[in-house]
Amino acid sequence: MSASGGTKAIVAALAANLAIAVAKFVAFLFSGSSSMLAESVHSVADSGNQGLLLLGGKKAQREATPQHPFGYGRERYIYAFLVSIVLFTVGGMFAIYEGYEKIHDPHPIEAWYWPVGVLVFAIIAESFSFRTAIRESNEIRGKLSWTQFVKRAKAPELPVVLLEDLGALVGLVLALGGVGLALLTGNGVWDGIGTLCIGVLLIAIAIVLAAETKSLLLGEAAGVEEVEKIKAAAVDGTVVTRVIHMRTLHLGPEELLVAAKIAVEGNDTATEVADAINAAEARIREAVPIARVIYLEPDIYRPEAAE
């Protein structure tokens, strides 16, 4: 993922959520709708999440140090994981609590035009943010389905923003449905039910985000296509005859560690092997530019010992 594409989607989502949060709070104050309060907190949580993603991207750019020789690329994964926690606690749990309270103590919605008008405005604004995230994702998604893209993306920002925007749009529809039914029936319980649904939705999205970012935090290998490119680039057919075994690990979204044992001929000189390793590293970096840290160990190929 290009960092600029991810940043553009985050900034678009942040601007939309800040404007929507203010409008929702105003609508809540005039109407007393619990759905509007839950949606207000949801937008504030989303705004905070976008701030976390921007902060993580900034911190990940720091230079490597002796204590962190591979750099700080995984900062982006840590902050993406924090997003899932914020979405679960601040957004989801608060909405469930507020919905429970409204169902047990229902009261009619006042000044109905405020929540309805703000929700329509929020749907329009959120749609523009979602459209930006979709457009930026399409530039790198290729032939992957949306589910595959969310699961396989090594850069966390776009999947996070996509799921947040999707959750926001569905949540707005639920809030509009809850407010609408409360107005039509004169029963505020429907507003509480809509709020509960928003809470369940946010918790579900938070769980998905937590699972995906946890996998990235633990360390994921390069994709199948990248692995094949690296293996092909390492072999020159003269000195380096094959890759005996290889391990890859993402140090960050755009930084890959490659460690491989390569087969060389037993009669090659040390100089020939060293030159071949340097050439192999250059070919690998050309084939897969994110392969920044490469360790190649020469060995004699023995079929019975190969992993």
From TrEMBL:
TM helices/strands, residue ranges: 6-30, 77-97, 112-134, 161-183, 189-211
Location of the Cation efflux protein transmembrane domain: 11-218
Pfam families membership: Cation_efflux
Coiled coil: none
Main location: membrane
Entries under InterPro entries matching the protein: Cation_efflux, Cation_efflux_CTD_sf, Cation_efflux_TM, Cation_efflux_TMD_sf, SLC30A9
Keyword Transmembrane helix tagged: yes
Name of this chain's protein: Cation transporter
PANTHER family named among the record's database cross-references: HUEL-CATION TRANSPORTER, PROTON-COUPLED ZINC ANTIPORTER SLC30A9, MITOCHONDRIAL
Membrane topology: Multi-pass membrane protein
Subcellular location: Membrane
Cell membrane as UniProt keyword: no
Organism for this UniProt entry: Streptomyces amritsarensis
Gene3D superfamilies on file: Cation efflux protein transmembrane domain
Keyword annotations of the record: Membrane, Transmembrane, Transmembrane helix, Transport
